[in-house]
Amino acid sequence: MPVIETSENNSNEILKTRWYNNNYNEVKIAILKYAQANNAILNGVNDDYMEFLFNVNFKEYFVKCTEYKGLIAVDLKITTSFFKAKKAIIIFYEEINQFLKLEGLGLLA
User: What share of the chain in percent tops pLDDT 90?
Assistant: First the structure.
């Protein structure tokens, strides 16, 4: 199955890393709220590496957070068909944005 993911220097705005002016615990809560609201099967949370793995509607989500200069970056990798994954990325960020302070996209690029 195809994989689509966000990254810092992606030329497509939809696929750019999101940076938040929140701490890791606030970001974690937002991600877990998204997973719960979408009836996700949670496969793992690793707080040491700030990683989350869960499945929603036949899509595998791998979320990686990175802390840099007081901000938290959130990148997402989805394994499924491209069009469903792109839409899922948009929905994921829209939903967690309700709980977080978006600082910008691809700030290090």
Answer: 84
